[in-house]
Write a structure and sequence with these properties.
- The complex is a heterodimer.
- By secondary structure, chain A is of the alpha/beta class.
- Chain A has ten helices and ten strands.
- A six-stranded mixed sheet of chain A has the order 6-7-8-3-9-10, sandwiched between helices. In chain A, strands 2-1-4-5 form a four-stranded antiparallel sheet, covered by helices on one side.
- In chain A, strand 4 and strand 5 form a beta hairpin.
- Chain A is globular and about 50 Å long.
- The two termini of chain A are 34 Å apart.
- Chain B is mostly helical.
- Chain B folds into two domains: 96 residues, no CATH class; 150 residues, no CATH class.
- In chain B, 71% of the residues lie in helices and 3% in strands.
- A two-stranded antiparallel ribbon of chain B has the order 1-2.
- Chain B is globular.
- Classes of the chains: A alpha/beta, B mainly alpha.
- At the A-B interface, helix 2 and helix 3 of A face helix 1, helix 10 and helix 11 of B.
- The complex binds adenosine-5'-triphosphate and magnesium ion.
- Adenosine-5'-triphosphate binds next to helix 1 of chain A.
Chain lengths: 251, 268
């Protein structure tokens, strides 16, 4: 299914206040790849993801998803394939119950109600949030919100997953669940994260962003082992690679 | 700080009880909407000086409260919001309309007072009816019902978004308030010099978040349709409910039941 390629061609984005967040990004991601986008705070990771789903439109350059340029006209088609979660889950959840929120996507695609129900239950089950079904989202804890927001895109059964810092605020068990879930998801996934141990577990490819530019792109293991590079762009080797006698024994 | 978080909880309260699963909640939204509108129309169409003949209208409210398992106090409290308006509206009635009306042999009061009281009762009945509607029917379902009544989409959208963003606005407000009070522990309230900037912040942040939320909706396939809740077909129970209340309201409007009952019991 080569039609789920993601291509960014010299993408530049400037915020209305003049802040240059992306300065000529070139990336090509093939179908089925799992890619981590890492970089310091403010490097432009979230901006990049937001432009992939057409919430922001780059002033220069082109983004193609599955051979289709991301423009205002193609948005509806492009977005059907993508499951996107915001860095801040509060922005993702707006219905009066968790169930309604997870059902929101499937219902918009006019699925019959029993199919919607099946999908919602499955998605909540996967993220381990079935017990939260009837709670109002605004009363959940940060991590619970995170799990629900991931369920709310899984229920749409997307072809591409774009997750902005999915493991932040998850407890270790929930984080492990997330990692397993991501490893089971066989389609394309693009994840931004500061959780480099998770990146190591989930993504075979890593792209380092610094000041709105791609500064490294390659095999995750190699990049995360390159202490000099990581240090330069505000990152650190993940614990398992730090040669710590306790952690590295596990591998 | 606690207070403002509390009031958000309370505002969301209606939203929450609208998710219950009682007989009333399970009725078709369209039916509930029509009955409520009809109830309000009938209520306000009572004569200016009628008070006692309106009493049977209470039966509807009491039944919905009970069957819908709706707590009385929070709803009554919310209905007080209209009190100032109503009091203001009718304040001149007693002065302008001061013909006496005899209620008991020789005791008389001015007709203005009666019409004033009647106005207040009507307003409360209508407001409580509307509050009961939204506490037994979620906003999305109501929107769908409005659509089925061929209300223009643009109006329904306005309604839905307003309803959704009120929470966003309040939450942003409470976040800022909390952040402020944590770092200014010795002040009660916010210093007046900061009202301007803080208010500006609230608006900008709300706007931003509203925009993000809207994006999140679009991302999940939202295309200005209300697919988010399926309203089912009307079933027998719905028709019975609808016809029952319409007949009831017409009967109590055109026959003065309290007087009838009174005359039956006194044998007059
Ligand atoms: N709405 C905005 N308006 C103006 N500038 C913004 C806006 N959002 C982000 N920026 C700026 O754009 C740059 C990139 O921000 P972005 O959110 O993409 O960073 P990030 O890599 O996701 O960081 P983090 O790791 O903290 O999430 C930052 O310098 C930030 O200050
Ligand atoms: Mg970010």
């Amino acid at each position: 299914m080569s039609h789920h390629k993601v291509i960014l061609n010299n993408v530049c984005f400037t915020y209305p206040d003049g802040k240059n967040a992306l300065n000529g990004i070139n990336i090509e991601i093939h179908h089925g790849e799992s890619v981590a986008i890492i970089g310091a705070n403010g490097a432009g990771k979230s901006t990049l993801l937001l432009s992939l789903v057409g919430i922001l439109f780059p002033q220069k350059g082109e983004i193609r998803i599955g051979e289709m340029p991301v423009t205002k006209k193609t948005l509806n088609i492009v977005r059907q394939k993508i499951g996107f979660t915001f860095q801040n889950s509060d922005e993702q959840l707006f219905n009066s119950t968790v169930y309604e929120d997870v059902a929101f996507g499937p219902r918009n695609y006019k699925l019959p109600e029993d199919e919607v129900k099946k999908r919602v239950e499955k998605a909540l089950e996967i993220v381990g949030a079935s017990h939260l079904k009837d709670r109002p989202p605004y009363k959940l804890s940060g991590g619970e919100k995170r799990s629900v927001s991931i369920a709310s895109v899984l229920s749409m059964e997307p072809d591409i997953l774009l997750l902005d810092e999915p493991s932040s605020s998850l407890d270790p068990k929930a984080r492990r669940k997330l990692i397993n879930l991501l490893n089971q998801f066989k389609h394309t996934k693009i994840i931004t994260s500061h959780d480099l141990d998770m990146v190591l577990d989930v993504c075979e490819r890593t792209i380092v962003i610094g000041n709105g530019q791609v500064v490294a792109d390659g095999n995750t293991f190699e990049i995360l082992n390159n202490g000099e590079l990581l240090d330069k762009y505000g990152l650190e080797k993940p614990f398992v690679l730090q040669g710590c006698p306790i952690c590295s024994n596990k591998n | 700080m606690i207070n403002i978080k509390n009031s958000i909880y309370k505002i969301r309260f209606l939203d929450e009880i609208s998710q219950k699963n009682t007989f009333i909640h399970k009725l078709h939204p369209l039916v509930k909407l029509i009955v409520s509108i009809f109830y309000i129309i009938m209520t306000v169409s009572y004569g200016k000086y009628e008070i006692f003949s309106m009493m049977p209208l209470l039966i509807y409210l009491v039944l919905v409260f009970n069957l819908g398992d709706i707590p009385l106090k929070p709803i009554l409290k919310r209905s007080l919001i209209v009190l100032p308006i109503v009091i203001g509206l009718g304040i001149f009635n007693p002065i302008l309309d001061n013909k006496p009306i005899y209620i008991f042999h020789s005791i008389s009061i001015s007709r203005g007072w009666v019409s004033y009281l009647s106005l207040i009762i009507k307003s409360f009945l209508s407001v409580i009816c509307a509050l009961l509607l939204i506490s037994t029917t979620s906003m999305d379902k109501l929107a769908k019902a409005l659509q089925q009544l061929h209300i223009p989409k643009i109006i329904i959208m306005q309604l839905l978004f307003t309803y959704r963003y009120i929470y966003v606005l309040l939450e942003e407000f409470s976040n800022i308030w909390t952040a402020y009070s944590l770092r200014a522990p010795n002040q009660s309230g916010i210093h007046y010099k900061l009202w301007g900037p803080l208010l500006g912040q609230v608006l900008i942040r709300t706007y931003d978040r509203a925009e993000r939320i809207y994006s999140a909706m679009k991302l999940r396939g939202y295309n200005t349709e209300f697919n988010n809740t399926e309203n089912d077909k009307l079933i027998l129970k719905d028709y019975i409910y609808l016809i029952f209340w319409i007949v009831f309201l017409l009967v109590v409007k055109f026959y003065n039941i309290p007087v009838l009952l009174g005359s039956i019991f006194t044998g007059a």
